[in-house]
Automatic annotation (TrEMBL):
<keyword id="KW-0285">Flavoprotein</keyword>
<protein>
    <submittedName>
        <fullName>Glutathione reductase Gor</fullName>
        <ecNumber>1.8.1.7</ecNumber>
    </submittedName>
</protein>
<keyword id="KW-0520">NAD</keyword>
<keyword id="KW-0547">Nucleotide-binding</keyword>
<feature type="binding site">
    <location>
        <position position="52"/>
    </location>
    <ligand>
        <name>FAD</name>
    </ligand>
</feature>
<keyword id="KW-0274">FAD</keyword>
<dbReference type="InterPro" id="IPR004099">
    <property type="entry name" value="Pyr_nucl-diS_OxRdtase_dimer"/>
</dbReference>
<keyword id="KW-1015">Disulfide bond</keyword>
<dbReference type="Pfam" id="PF07992">
    <property type="entry name" value="Pyr_redox_2"/>
</dbReference>
<dbReference type="InterPro" id="IPR023753">
    <property type="entry name" value="FAD/NAD-binding_dom"/>
</dbReference>
<feature type="domain" description="Pyridine nucleotide-disulphide oxidoreductase dimerisation">
    <location>
        <begin position="335"/>
        <end position="434"/>
    </location>
</feature>
<feature type="disulfide bond" description="Redox-active">
    <location>
        <begin position="43"/>
        <end position="48"/>
    </location>
</feature>
<keyword id="KW-0521">NADP</keyword>
<dbReference type="Pfam" id="PF02852">
    <property type="entry name" value="Pyr_redox_dim"/>
</dbReference>
<keyword id="KW-0676">Redox-active center</keyword>
<feature type="binding site">
    <location>
        <position position="300"/>
    </location>
    <ligand>
        <name>FAD</name>
    </ligand>
</feature>
<keyword id="KW-0560">Oxidoreductase</keyword>
């Protein structure tokens, strides 16, 4: 058997590419996986994992700072370099375990930058490889802002490789990344300004949840400038940023978190000619096929939802489609998501500002609990007006990133409003409050 010819070539060993390669190999396919950087891609090396470790440290710092309220003596000092060393060692272990798994499963891994010649041919360095199927799983990168002094900006890749914590931080963009970094670095002791170009942060989230998160971030001392943007950065003896509103600020670091762009352009002319969607990502069919037969796209490079669980699910599904008995494509309406602020803000399903949703949405219950606590909890349940089945949920509370998965399962099971009346939650608990309000406000 030729060692340059495979059943499938996969470009990119991030969440999507790894899921595809592992599953396809389990199904008996000969898989060739190309990666130019570290195994694990964005999520493991410069995304979810390093971010969540910092988030967990920030949560601990906040708990210690609030301990005095509970009669516990307060004392905290953060050794940032030690935290980063521990985090990076953990990430190195994950990468090593990926390498072992791929070897065990017989996936051929090639390190280097891939260029696509046609639907069946890929070049890495001076070698050419062939396959029946080609899977593009090249992910995305931070979008470069085109402003005066852009060379002074840092991005999420830079933030997650910092060895020291900046004292004064300005962040441009109030999406997931901007809000999470703002919350984390504030919790770790930095002075933070967040500059967002819309009327409120987290503008892809249900409005009430986004406003709740915004006021929570402000309460921690983060300065949030909405309907504003940075137009220029200048460095002389200090780093200065100039805003559209006329405001000016100084910071040790200015971070651009204004969005991400799919990695399409570096793959060669053949891929550049594939059809893209409005989002800029590759347009795909409901079988993940791009505009060229035999060429597939999964993960952030494809026009889906740029989240790890979607990349992983789609990679697994496509492997079953190409090398197994087929599989059902993950329903994006059931994908739960969380912004890791404090407390985490999570939602799933239809929202009061969801795009493309039809029918009536009736928020049955909405409440702010624990007025005396530092982090009031928030929830919102959306029921289909006619059938009173649960179609959406928002939660901002300690543990919301886990609770929201239960809401997703209830939506999948088409739970009715009665499910909340029939079930008896724990006392005293957050669930107790929102179950009983659902019952009384129906
Ligand atoms: C700061 C941050 C925090 C995040 N937090 C979360 C979170 O908490 N939860 C969540 O669900 N999602 C989160 N995300 C999003 C998540 O990381 C992505 O959705 C996910 O990693 C996408 O996986 P992927 O496999 O599509 O792409 P990637 O993981 O980006 O992998 C693509 C791989 O392709 C390689 N590649 C690209 N071009 C080539 C080429 N020409 N040749 C060879 N190799 C190539 C790249 O080096 C990379 O390793 C976060 C993202 C960021 C940036
Ligand atoms: N917890 C998570 O699941 C998580 C965390 C991080 C990232 N992600 C994924 O990564 C994707 C990218 O995240 P992101 O936060 O970079 O992008 P984003 O598109 O979610 O948010 C960017 C925000 O920046 C604002 N913006 C753009 N240009 C601006 C400017 N010039 N001035 C001020 N504001 C500006 C936009 O209005 C937008 O709200 C997300 O959509 C998400 O899918 C997920």
């Amino acid at each position: 058997m030729r060692n340059d010819t495979f059943d499938t070539i996969v470009i990119g060993a991030g969440s999507a590419g790894l899921a595809f390669a592992r599953t396809a190999a389990d199904l008996g396919a000969r898989v060739f996986l190309i990666e130019r950087d570290a195994l694990g891609g964005t999520c493991v090396n410069r995304g979810c994992v390093p971010k969540k470790i910092l988030w967990a440290a920030g949560r601990t710092a906040r708990s210690i700072a609030q301990a005095a309220d509970q009669g516990i003596a307060e004392s905290s000092s953060i050794n940032f370099p030690a935290l980063i060393r521990k985090r990076d060692a953990h990430i190195a272990d994950i990468r090593a375990s990926f390498a072992d798994q791929l070897t065990e499963k017989g996936v051929t891994v090639r390190r280097g930058e891939a260029t696509v010649c046609n639907a069946n041919t890929v070049v890495v360095g001076d070698k050419t490889y062939h396959a029946q199927h080609l899977v593009l799983a090249t992910g995305g990168r931070p979008t470069r802002m085109e402003i005066e002094g852009a060379e002074h900006l840092q991005n999420s890749d830079d933030v997650l490789s910092w060895k020291a914590r900046p004292e004064r931080l300005a962040i441009i963009g109030g999406g997931y990344i901007g809000c999470e970094f703002a919350a984390i670095f504030r919790a770790l002791g930095s002075e933070v300004t967040l500059i967002h170009n819309g009327p409120n942060i987290l503008d892809t989230f249900p409005k009430d949840l986004a406003l709740h998160a915004q006021s929570g971030l402000r309460e921690t001392g983060i300065s949030i400038q909405t309907n504003d943007s940075v137009t220029a950065i200048k460095r002389d003896d200090t780093l200065k940023y100039f805003c559209k509103s006329g405001r000016m600020g100084t910071a040790d670091v200015v971070v651009a978190a204004s969005g991400r762009s799919p990695n399409i352009d570096q793959l060669g002319e053949f891929v550049k000619a594939l059809k893209t969607a409005e989002s800029g990502a590759l347009a795909i069919s409901n079988q993940f096929q791009t505009s060229c037969a035999g060429v597939y796209a999964i993960g952030d490079v494809a026009d889906r939802l740029p989240l790890t669980p979607v990349a992983t699910a789609d990679g697994t599904t496509l492997a079953h489609m190409l090398h197994g008995q087929g599989a059902t494509v993950a329903n994006l309406d059931l994908v739960a998501t969380t912004a890791f602020v404090y407390p985490p803000a999570a939602f799933v399903g239809s929202t009061n500002n969801a795009k493309g949703k039809s029918g009536t949405v009736t928020p049955l219950a909405q409440n702010v609990l624990s007025q005396s606590s530092h982090d009031p909890d928030f929830y919102q349940l959306i029921f289909d007006g006619k059938n009173k089945t649960l179609t959406g949920a928002s939660i901002a509370a300690e543990g919301a990133e886990d609770l929201i998965a239960m809401a997703s399962a209830l939506i999948a099971a088409k739970a009715s409003a009665n499910a909340f009346t029939d079930a008896t939650p724990v006392h005293p608990s957050f669930a107790e409050e929102f179950f009983s309000n659902t019952q009384t406000q129906e």
